[in-house]
Structures are given as structure tokens and as C-alpha cells.
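Morning F.,

Quick status update on the modeling queue. The single chain you submitted on Monday has been processed. Sequence for confirmation:
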Amino acid sequence: MPRHAAFLCLRNHPDKPLDAVDEEARVRGLDERDTGLCRKLVGLEVRRRATLRAIVAGFAHRQPKRDLALMLRLGIAQILWLDRVPRHAAVSETVGATSELVGLSKGSVVNGVLRNLIRALKPDHSGDPTVDVPGAPFHFDAPVFRDPAEHPHLWAEDALSVPSALHKKWTQRAGMDEANRLARMAYDEAPLSLRARDAAERDERLEELRALGVDAVPGAHPALILCPAESAGVAIRSEAFAAGALTAQGEHAARAVELVGDVSGARVLDVCAAPGGKTTYLLQRGAAGVVSVDASAGRLARLEAGLARVGLGGRGRAAAMDATAALRPDARFDAVLVDAPCSNTGVLAQRPAARWRYGPKSQSALVAIQERLLESAAERVAPGGALVYSTCSLEPEENEQRVARFLERSGEFVEESRVRSAPRPPAEGGPVDGGFAARLVRTSG
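C-alpha cells below.
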């Protein structure tokens, strides 16, 4: 049943399949273990989709149609990366699910392809990037991926499952090694980043999580704790999290809030505020009040629930609106934080489906939205107040170039400081997320 649920999440919710897991599991009556398997399968397919497509192309006799191709990708993902599922079980369960959901004859196709793949698998890596399976101790007995010496960006798409256009862009900007490193960071599920209420509490919270069996480590930020993805559920169900002593928040998001500066006694506007981590941190840092606006009423409900969990219910006001359109015309704030929609290229491990939405058209549309949000938010900054523009993108068009264009057109703001980061492994202290933020101060108007 978890394979059925994973298939339906991916087929029926292509943009955000991971968000559909809990509801699909509830409808099908899956227990916690099977729900976890469903989520793992969906996550693997999304993160490694291009790799899986290359493998399907290498082992299927002809290009399969959408539903059959999806079932093949799910079966291959289990065989290669879920060592807790025996290979024979992965084959038989995938064949059964395919027969029920796609058609009996298609089950026979899946059986043949998966068994041929198993026969082609050899232990360990060979050193040949056209046959070595990324993230698994196997290689194929014949080339499956394109040759990086001839087609480095197409190899990255095949083997590292990052769009070739994005890999090419990273390479042009930072070099091949950095492009491959960023792609590998996005290949696996990201650690869970938790923020203690303040740095003084972090060590205590760290020990509490370790006592629960979570192999947690301190992040580079003095209040952050990084938890392995496989222990994320334990951490979220912990007493410390339930009591509001821990909040899910990445380092870049925390740094963006800190860039706002001293908010003690200040009135702050948080634009694109849901799901609420930044609003929470602003209030914990002493803001007199935060008005949180977001276009999604459903996501704002999560924000309000989060504030209640940490004991800040009633301290902020949340309103669903497009940018700042529904605020009073004369409403001005001491500080405004804009966490703009973006391509998410700094958090592809956390938001894996975003990589498959990347492209010139989508980025152009995002840049237009970012420009409108930044200009709308700027109108709400009181003289002398701060405007912080933040994204979780690594792309200059959405970051430095966006700010430069705004400053050229405005004439009322100056940039005081900025932060920029790329994701790093927990072993290096992180941050496990990347992004950009700039602090602009209104000098007139």
C-alpha cells in the first residue's frame, strides 16, 4: 500500500508531491511505518528523478508512457537506495502495485526491467562516471549515464539529478567543482535545522535530543542544531519542540531576521511570512508587534499555530493579502522584511521539486514578482527604517541584481549590509541552506 500511495502522490500532485503524503496516507489508512516508506519513496523519486529517468532509458526496450515510467522509477529507487527493502520484495511489490494501478500487462514489463537491472548491478564503484551509481555502492556493467568529459552538464543531469541548464549556470559562475558540489548537496535529503530560543539554551536542547537517540550536532549559527533527516520525526515529536523551546528554521532564515537589526520595541511588517519562522524569531528578539502578511490563508493558519506553540499567540497579527495591498494607505513600519518567492536554488535539498520548475521563463516570472514585492514593501518603511530583502536562491538575477536595480530606481534607500551563503554539509557546520539577504535603510521619503 505505501507504493500505491507514493505513486498517487507523484501522479496526482506533480508540483508538490511530498506535501500530499500525509493526506494520501490518511485516506489509505497507512500506519506510521508505511507512511514513512511512502514519504521516502516520494522523496527519492523527486530528488533523483533525472537519474532514474536515465536508468529507465538504459533498461527499458522502448520509452514507457507516463504511469509505467513512474512505477519503474519507484521500483528502481527501492532497489538502489532503500537497503532495508530486499530486492526480491522491491520487485514483487512494485509489480503488484503496477498490475493494480497501471495494468496487468504493465506488471510484466516492470518485472522484466527490474530483474534485468538487478543482473546488471555490480558491487562498489568502478571509477567510471558513466556506470557508477551516485549515492549507492554499485555500478552497472555497461554505460548508463552520459560521459562528463564530453557532456559535463548532461552528465550532471543524469548522475546528479540537477537540470543541465542550472548546472551550466553554476559552472559559469563558480566553476565545475562548485557546481558539482552544490548538485551533490541537493541529491540527498537535508538535515533538519532547529533553532533554540537563544544561543544560551542550545547546548541543553542538544543534549535533550541526543538523549532521545538523535545524532544532533551544533550548526555554525550559535542557536542552531542540525538533526539527521532520518531522526527528524523524533526531533519534531520531542518535548522541547512541543513546548516551544525549539523551532524549525534554517541558518539563512535566521541570519535574514538578524539583518533587520535591533527590533526591541519596533513595529515590523513581515511580507510573505508563512509558515512563520521569521515572525517567531522577530517576536522572540523583542519586536513590539509583527504584522504578518501572506497570499495563502492556509499557510497563515500554520503561522498562527506555530506562534501559539512557542507561547507567542496574540503577539502578532496575520492577514491574507497580496503583498501589502490591503494595509491602510498610511501604514508605516520601523522595519519591513520581505522573504520573496524565488527559484529555491539554495534549498533544493529541502524543497527538491523546485529544481524541476527551474528555467528561463519561470525565473523571469519570479523576478517580476520579486520586483513588485520589493517596491510595495519599500512604501511601508518609515524614514530611517530598515528594509530587508531575502531569498533562498543562489542566483544573482534574483539577489544582487534585484537589489541594485531597486536602489537605482528608488533613490530613497541605501544598502548597509548583506549576507550570502551556499549550502554546506553538517560536518562543516553548515549552513545546510543557502540564500541572500540585503539590509536597506530609508534615508528620505
